[in-house]
User: What shape does this take?
Amino acid sequence: MTEVLNQTYSFGQFRIETAERRVRRGDEIISLTPKAFETLLLLVENRGRLVSKEEFLSRVWPNAYVTEVSLARNVSALRKALGDAGENLIETVSKFGYRFKLPVTEAAGDTSEPAISTAMAVLPFASVGAEEGNAYLELGLADALITRLSTMRRVAVRPTSAVRRYAGTPVNLGEIGRELRVARILEGTIQVIADRLRVTVRLVDVETQSPIWAEKFDEAFSNIFAIQDSISERVANALLPHLTETERASLSAPTVGNSKAHQYYLKGRYAWTLRTGASLETALGHFKTAIDIAPDYALAHAGYADCCLSLLLHAGVSPREYLPLAKTAATRAIELAPDLAEGYVPLAMAKLCGDWDFAGAEAAMRRGLDLKPNYAHGRHWHSQLLTTIGRFEESILEARRALELDPLSLMINMHLADMLFIARDYETAAEQLRDTLDMNGDFVPALNWLGLVYSKTGNHAEAVRVLERAVDLCDGNPRVIADLGCVYAAAGRNEEAFAVADRLEALSSQRHVSPVERALLSAALDCLDATFGFLEEAFAERHFDLLLLKVWPGFDSLRGDLRLAGMLERMGLGEGGRMKDEG
Assistant: This one.
């Protein structure tokens, strides 16, 4: 099951590049949802052979209940994207499945960069005789190993967000390997006895279910760093027998010498992965405690920065308070560890959201991704940055790369749809959102975006139905409420839309409500003076939501207004939605 991610397949005018999860026709990139791409890949890998419906459902939707309608929809989308109206490429075998008809040429991809020789996952460790409150250590040790092993360019390591779901669950390595599309899994147990830490660990080949390497460690808790170093280096040697000096140096790079601070850092990362308002506040407290204990702990500063930004995105806190905190923490992380990718990524987002420093944000993000190319979190946020400055094609490619690195992330799945929506590719965005909701039908961000997509394509009744459901589930999130008002207005239900505007006004006295959300609703109601009043308020706050002013479909009705052009000029954005200094 070794996964060579730079494989290419060619047929007719088309080429599949598995490294980038994309299909090309000459120089043109064919836009496909991840599920449609997986459907095509399965067909091409089995060209000439009938692939049953059961095989498709098992490969493309593992462990998710979907009907054959989803498969038919994917095949229909493929045919449309590839211009296969006459079934010259994909043959339907009624009641059984599909067959790919053209001959395919298979080759290794560009070898100018080292191939990713395998993909692996590090599972949360299982506690043996654990005391209550040690859950942070189970996921925390896995997170520390993921952070270290991710520095290897030739190995794609699934991020913590992808493996957190397996904490405390029975382990079926074959099933997990298929879900995460990995060839190797690192698993183990952990036991705390007084001041000692006992760890057993093994690296397993998923296909054969046989261990590649296994070992036991019994150390004082203060030597947890030595255990992390030993595991990381031995796993790396098992995967890549000939490590470069750079790889060895990155694996043995020191983190912090204070075990107490490290425990709080692990607790912080554990809470951060949950992404709720309460868990993020808890995480922020743990990172602060780690910094108080060890002020020179670079990863703790980076975690604090990530947490501030996540609070902005998921908990609706004030940007005036949290953006400066994020920037200061990220800057300090880099001062302490100049080669820490985890510091450059939040610094880039703080520069973008807080300073509207587009060139500085791009430079910081590229530095972080140069240091850690397989960093899904970084690819995700780089995609957001690229969309902000109007570089849609690059943004979508980065979003697809992030999804390849973290295929089970609901947020990254939804983010790809978000970028497609902003690029006005509503049909593909809808497919991606339906795929995301196949994973979790109550995922509010995906419901929210799907309602907006339906509204843009004229399906107003379905838009209202989906967004009313999202509002019921969103725990009073002002953004979702405002979007419901927008689809009411688009459906001609202005009385209900104005009622939503009144609701947001009342809500603003209780919690932070973005003036950009209120501007969007005012624009939908054609109240342009109110729209620009809210936009000026957002400009005065340097509100990060305003960064989408140039590209957001909800503001398309303002494109000919000189007030909009003037605001974009003051923000430093050129006519194409790009940075002015790009020309």
The chain has a mean pLDDT of 83.
